[in-house]
Specification:
Structural class: alpha+beta
Keywords: DNA damage, DNA repair, DNA-binding, Glycosidase, Hydrolase, Lyase, Metal-binding, Multifunctional enzyme, Zinc, Zinc-finger
Number of helices: 6
Oligomer: single chain
CATH class of the largest domain: Mainly Alpha
Largest sheet: 4 strands, antiparallel
CATH architecture of the largest domain: Orthogonal Bundle
Catalytic activity: 2'-deoxyribonucleotide-(2'-deoxyribose 5'-phosphate)-2'-deoxyribonucleotide-DNA = a 3'-end 2'-deoxyribonucleotide-(2,3-dehydro-2,3-deoxyribose 5'-phosphate)-DNA + a 5'-end 5'-phospho-2'-deoxyribonucleoside-DNA + H(+)
Shape: elongated
Radius of gyration: 20 Å
Cofactor: Zn(2+)
GO molecular function, one term: oxidized pyrimidine nucleobase lesion DNA N-glycosylase activity
Number of domains: 2
Order of helices and strands: HEEEEEEEEHHHHHEEEE
Strand content: 15-25%
Number of strands: 12
Protein name: DNA-(apurinic or apyrimidinic site) lyase
Amino acid sequence: MPEGDTVHQAAKRLHTALADQVLTRSDLRVPRYATADLTGRRVLEVVPRGKHLLTRIEGGLTLHSHLRMDGSWKVYAAHERWSGGPGHQIRVILGTTEHTAVGYRLPVLDLLRTDSELRVVGHLGPDLLGPDWDPDLALRNLLHAPDRPLGEALLDQRNLAGIGNIYKSELCFMAAATPWLPVGELPATVPHRLLTAAKRLLEANRDRPARSTTGRRDQLLYVYGRAPRPCLRCGTPVRSAQQGDGSRDRPTYWCPRCQSGPAPNGPTPGTASGTTRRTN
């Protein structure tokens, strides 16, 4: 699952290549838009909204895309060879005289009126990297279902937009809580610190080629993808399990010593109930 910083980087690349340029090639390889032709129209801007990309085009049109797990946008110079994947994985091509943007494996692609964008992004909570960021609203959203596991609440884009599976695991580690701990069982000051950390991390990583949450060059992430290697703080082997509703389970990582709360096979030892480490 892409993170908000990844989508922000994709939007920046697309905007740099396409904005204020007239489309000389338009190929939407989705049956419902097979006859749509955007050539001759000027691209106005490309903006991210959470994990969604909105390419706004002259004439009041928006091309909406979502990367989900495997999608990507690649930008090539006009005569550069495409290397993002085989041709059958291409879902959209937008070309100008200087650049070609190619969308691979995009599971979501919509062409809609710009004034109807709320139809596809109106459900999103405050965007951690957007001008609409509202920490108070995000906090209320996060806390509105106190029995919900923390990991699931952080991933729910209706609460706040931009957190993916990597940040979910990393933020839970920073809060010293397992991703299965109910939100309502967090100490009172932790949710606010968690959101502050989330915004700081996404802002710090939105222009970096390699994402880091630790501030270390040798180890970029605390727990994500590290099972069964030792925890960077205590040396206990990091564990992994699936978390989700069954239909959209996500790999989740945590340290059974540094993080308190329930786990898939029962409670983990962690710190004493009601205490957490500092959210850094």
